[in-house]
Amino acid sequence: MELLSKSIQVLGNRLQDVEEKLAATEKLLKSSQDTYASLLGEIQDYAIITLDLQGNIVNWNKGAEHIKGYTAKEVVGKNFRIFYTPAAQADNTPEKILAAAARNGRVQHDDYRVRKDGTLFWGSVTMTALHNNEGELTGFIKITRDLTQRKLMEDQTFQYLSKLETENRELEQFTYIASHDLQEPLRSISTLVELVATEYAGKLDENADNYLRFIRQSSNRMSDLIKALLDYSRIGKVKVKEAVDCNQIILNVVDDLRTAIHESKAQVIMENLPIVQAYPIELKLLFQNLLSNAIKFRQKDVPPVIRISCVKKGHEYEFTFADNGIGIAPRYQEKIFEIFQRLHNQLQYEGTGIGLAHCKKIVTLHGGRIWLNSIPGQGSQFYFTISA
Ligand code: ADP
């Protein structure tokens, strides 16, 4: 009997212990919930709102007051539809968001919202469904960020880019039409000069013969420039990307340039070239321009050695065309990518000055960059990237 009463007492003490521990844990839990609630309440940059099942506002923090302009007193109990524009309300957007959150647990929605004073802000909303221990839906928590500034900047950038694109297209159209139309009168001039030169051969004095020769040279040069301009405006007109083996393109370009390679005793070394998604005709033109420049701008009496290599860096392939040619002084290293910019006259090195402008346009078309390193008298390395 005594043993039983002792056991009951021990049990009673244990029970009291457990009850005390439980009370302490509950107190801790309550205080941590309070801290959490007041933390949420104080957050300024995010509107954090809890809603009941129908979307009526239950809790309202400082951030919500800051972003939407209502105090908790004014808004608790109202339906969260009031933050939506009339068009979104008519479309039942608030109800659709609640339904989607209930279905998927969480939904993200970015759109214009209405402040208390009727002004709009760009809100990025995350709506999360809340459940009790039994897994029943009890309401929602809605977190809104005011991203108006970011949205305005994005809109401005978008407008600026579309304007730039339109102007670029117009400019290309203009270049195409102008160069196309200029060819016709130029052709007439060339034909007439040829006619005068043959019909009046030997009948004119030496001066007139010289003048005719100059006119012929100038019209040929102008024809080359106009053709180059026309080619430039055509780059990227037909846009179909495909898998292109860069090794094969170099072999084709080397074949096309075999006379120049043979005459200059050039050595072309290629290493590790990849297969890339690219516009094949444009890519060939890019390789051809870089390779032919490396041969053309060689040092006197030094056979050109051109090394073509490629490394993958992150999401890009970085190509290098390195030569041992005459090099380019630092102050010209940007200028040479502009249309018709040349550092030599026709007698020193012939050309139109559009090759590197072509290269830049082609690389840009592929979403890449082109640049160079060069030491005059030692050689140049042209680099460009293509998205991998
Ligand atoms: P072009 O070759 O018709 O002159 P480009 O636009 O291809 O026109 O080149 C512009 C200028 O850049 C050239 O006139 C030349 O002065 C310089 N250049 C281009 N490539 C090289 C190179 N590999 N080495 C030295 N100079 C070069």
TrEMBL record:
Residues 32-79 form the PAS domain. The keyword Transferase applies. Pfam families: HATPase_c, HisKA, PAS_9. Its EC number is 2.7.13.3. The keyword rRNA-binding does not apply. Keywords: Coiled coil, Kinase, Phosphoprotein, Transferase. One of its GO terms (molecular function) is phosphorelay sensor kinase activity. It catalyses: ATP + protein L-histidine = ADP + protein N-phospho-L-histidine. CDD domains: HisKA (cd00082), PAS (cd00130). Residues 177-388 form the Histidine kinase domain. NCBIfam families: sensory_box. PANTHER family: PAC DOMAIN-CONTAINING PROTEIN, PHYTOCHROME-LIKE PROTEIN CPH1. This is histidine kinase.
